[in-house]
Automatic annotation (TrEMBL):
<dbReference type="GO" id="GO:0005737">
    <property type="term" value="C:cytoplasm"/>
</dbReference>
<keyword id="KW-0963">Cytoplasm</keyword>
<dbReference type="InterPro" id="IPR053924">
    <property type="entry name" value="RecX_HTH_2nd"/>
</dbReference>
<feature type="domain" description="RecX second three-helical">
    <location>
        <begin position="102"/>
        <end position="143"/>
    </location>
</feature>
<dbReference type="InterPro" id="IPR053926">
    <property type="entry name" value="RecX_HTH_1st"/>
</dbReference>
<dbReference type="InterPro" id="IPR053925">
    <property type="entry name" value="RecX_HTH_3rd"/>
</dbReference>
<dbReference type="InterPro" id="IPR036388">
    <property type="entry name" value="WH-like_DNA-bd_sf"/>
</dbReference>
<feature type="domain" description="RecX first three-helical">
    <location>
        <begin position="56"/>
        <end position="94"/>
    </location>
</feature>
<dbReference type="GO" id="GO:0006282">
    <property type="term" value="P:regulation of DNA repair"/>
</dbReference>
<dbReference type="Pfam" id="PF02631">
    <property type="entry name" value="RecX_HTH2"/>
</dbReference>
<protein>
    <recommendedName>
        <fullName>Regulatory protein RecX</fullName>
    </recommendedName>
</protein>
<comment type="similarity">
    <text>Belongs to the RecX family.</text>
</comment>
<dbReference type="Pfam" id="PF21981">
    <property type="entry name" value="RecX_HTH3"/>
</dbReference>
<comment type="function">
    <text>Modulates RecA activity.</text>
</comment>
<feature type="domain" description="RecX third three-helical">
    <location>
        <begin position="150"/>
        <end position="196"/>
    </location>
</feature>
<feature type="region of interest" description="Disordered">
    <location>
        <begin position="22"/>
        <end position="52"/>
    </location>
</feature>
<dbReference type="Pfam" id="PF21982">
    <property type="entry name" value="RecX_HTH1"/>
</dbReference>
């Protein structure tokens, strides 16, 4: 199964800016904040809590390098690394404050990227975002950027790419196969069959099929 294409975050390449915002925050914190750049080498001097925090922060920064992730994805990653839940929550809250974790921005980027590159319909996009722990209200807002015309055009492109694969089939079999492909992409039956029938009945097919 091919690896999912993830949207690049708006801060891609600027993780250091978020870290500097964190380190430079003048507000007092309940525990000393170690360097975000590396795990402290003086483990004995820093103490076990500081060491755990530095390790957890590095896990988050490594996970965010080059791609955005939802808060749940990051929380799950910390849990798999046996980071204590209280520490994980505190760090994720801080990453959210400085803008390195933003489920709303993540959802918008994910929808735009996956709709453009994979032609996914809102239903499929919604399922993907739910699996990543994004809440329903945030998903709904992100999906508002896709209207019916966008869906229809994306469905047309998907069908045109697959027309060669149904050459030689009778129209009924070709319609079923192409409509099934669109259904797996999250399109409703009504839209899928309408687009497929229109494309199969087109007088001229694009030269770059």
């Amino acid at each position: 199964m091919p690896e999912e294409t993830r949207p690049a975050p708006t801060w891609a390449g600027d993780v250091q800016l978020g870290v500097e915002a964190w380190v430079g925050d003048p507000r007092p914190t309940p525990t000393p904040t170690p360097s975000a750049q590396a795990v402290p080498t003086d483990h004995q001097g820093q103490g076990p809590e500081a060491d755990h925090e530095a390790v957890a922060r590095k896990i988050l920064l490594d996970a965010l390098t080059g791609q955005a992730r939802s808060r749940k994805e990051l929380a799950d990653k910390l849990a798999r690394k046996d980071v204590p839940a209280e520490l994980a929550t505190r760090l994720l809250d801080r990453f959210t404050e400085v803008g390195l974790v933003d489920d709303s921005a993540f959802a918008h980027q994910w929808v735009e990227s996956r709709q453009r590159s994979r032609g996914l319909a809102p239903r499929a996009l919604s399922q993907e975002l739910r699996r990543k722990g994004v809440d329903d209200e945030t998903i709904k807002e992100a999906l508002e950027q896709i209207d019916e015309d966008d869906q229809r055009e994306a469905a047309r492109r998907l069908v045109r790419r697959k027309l060669r694969s149904v050459q030689g089939l009778d129209q009924q079999a070709a319609t079923r196969r192409l409509a099934g492909m669109l259904a797996r992409k999250g399109y409703s039956a009504g839209l899928a069959f309408a687009v497929v029938r229109a494309e199969l009945g087109a007088d001229a097919l694009p030269d770059d099929m």
